[in-house]
Amino acid sequence: MATIVPIDFAKARYALAAHYPSQWPQDIGAEVAFAGRSNVGKSSAINAITNQNRLAKTSKTPGRTQQIVFFELQDSLRLVDLPGYGYAKAPANLRKHWQEFISEYLSSRQCLCALVIPMDIRRPLTELDIIMLEHCWEIELAVHVLLTKADKFKRAKALNILQAVSKDLKSQPQTTVQLFSAAKKQGVDEARKQLTGYLHEKVPA
Q1: Angle formed by the axes of helices 127-138 and 92-108, to 10°?
Q2: Predicted TM-score (pTM) of this structure
Q3: Residue 177 host element (H or E)
Q4: H-helix or E-strand containing 135?
Q5: pLDDT category, 67, cuts 50, 70, 90?
Q6: What pLDDT is attached to residue 65?
Q7: Which 3 state secondary structure label does DSSP give 107?
Q8: How far is CA 39 from CA 61, 96, 184, 204, in A?
Q9: Model confidence over 82-101: pLDDT tens digits?
Q10: ∠ CA(108), CA(72), CA(47), 5° rounding?
Q11: How far is CA 35 from CA 69, 106, 115, 157, in A?
Q12: Strands, E, within 27-138: which ranges?
């Protein structure tokens, strides 16, 4: 069995932000994208995984990210930050644009190998999360769920929630779940290992 060469996520750098598909980078290599409800810690998760404080923009105003942001890793490997979904205060026309934009990206991007969905451990598997998961299952896209802010609970309770969510998703192919805390750096190595596997499966090292 071939040895998977580690990826230095700390070398991730901002590449571009796109409002329209015509602005996306060339569809080659491999990408893992992040998508989640607003204010679940998506940007913080990206920053923790890359060991950079300000790579992905965080904001106290949910729904601020209005474009797809691409980060270069190495050898045509990328991380992608998708707009947060479900922010009710965004104008209806903007929410519609986000929905169509994200849907087109997920369905048409050939180099996309997996989607990471951060979910607040206190409110996992919301209706919007289920819609996103079902879309991924429909197009046979691998999904890795990060139960973020896991430090908000004692370990025993966090593990119980992990077990419950894993049980709910057990029947779905290519869907995995883990505990994660950006604040405490919990689960960062596990997430990096998962992402490395996705990226190298698409583009062998």
Answers
A1: 30
A2: 0.93
A3: strand 175-179
A4: helix 127-138
A5: confident
A6: 55
A7: helix
A8: 8, 19, 17, 34
A9: 988 766 566 677 677 777 88
A10: 105
A11: 11, 10, 7, 25
A12: 30-34, 68-72, 77-81, 112-120
Which tokens in the block code for residue 88? 């009710």
Q: Which two tokens stand for residue 177?
A: 């779940």
Helical axes 42-50 vs 188-202, angle rounded to 10°: 80
What lies within 8 Å, CB to CB, of 33 at 6+ separation is 79, 80, 81, 82, 105, 106, 112, 114, 115, 116
**DSSP summary character for residue 23:** G
CA angle 178, 152, 163 (to 5 degrees): 35
One-letter identity of residue 29:
G
204 residue type, one letter: P
Q: Rounded CA gap, 76 and 29, in Å?
A: 5
Cα–Cα distance for residue pair 45/129, rounded to 1 Å: 17
Contacts of 157 (CB under 8 A, 6+ apart): none
